[in-house]
Amino acid sequence: LLRMAKIVHSADVDEDIDDMRLAFMSHPNTIICEAFRQIRTTLLFSGQVGQHNSILVTSPMPSDGRTTVTLNLASHLVKGGMKVLVVEANFRQPAMRHLFKAACPKIGLSSILLGESTWEECKFSVNNEFDVISAGPIPKNPAELLGSNEMAALVEDVATRYDIVLYDSSPCLIVSDASVL
Questions:
Q1: What is the spatial distance between Cα 48 and Cα 41, in angstroms, rounded to a whole number?
Q2: Which of the chain's ends, N or C, has fewer CB atoms near its CB within 10 Å?
């Protein structure tokens, strides 16, 4: 059984955090980041990380904080000595291009799955800490791409090159994308 820490809402902290998704960069010494350190520690000592290095981050509804959890957890896993890749598998509401404008290439996961680019061409580094593959151009058939043989091959390939791969997915009660993944 994996016990998770409670991540407080930004309204419940003294610090004025503009974007919770980037708290690891802007407010590394806050109670919010401490919650992610607790989650990291729980993961590392649960035995789960050694058994499975691909983790899907989803939630029931939009705006539940999937990207916040994914990015902050990635940063704290790196600080715990892990080599981490974040894959934005949310074609419905992609956020990485908005968050990391200068570093984020126009190509991404959809480009890889359509055979237009390799994952090495699509990845970029955040703070020289962890790598990210953004969603890329929004495809017409998200669930089909995520359930494709190309996606299965990508999951296998990156799992051999990183200690942890975090997949930032769509909400599971709204679309079938997370179920397919």
A1: 11
A2: N
Distance CA 181, CA 170 (A): 10
Cite the DSSP H helix spans in 47-104: 48-51, 66-79, 96-99
pLDDT in tens, 40-86: 777 777 765 556 689 998 888 887 788 988 998 999 899 888 999 99
Report helix, strand or coil for 52: coil
Q: What letter would DSSP give residue 46?
A: H
Residues 6+ apart with CB under 8 A from 103: 124, 125, 126
Pull the structure tokens for residue 126.
């955040």
CA distances from 41 to 78, 93, 166 (A): 12, 29, 16
Do the Cβ atoms of 113 and 151 come closer than 8 Å?
Answer: yes
Burial 47-85 (b: 16+ CB within 10 A, else e): eebeeebbebbbbeeeeeebbbbbbbbbbbbbbbebebb
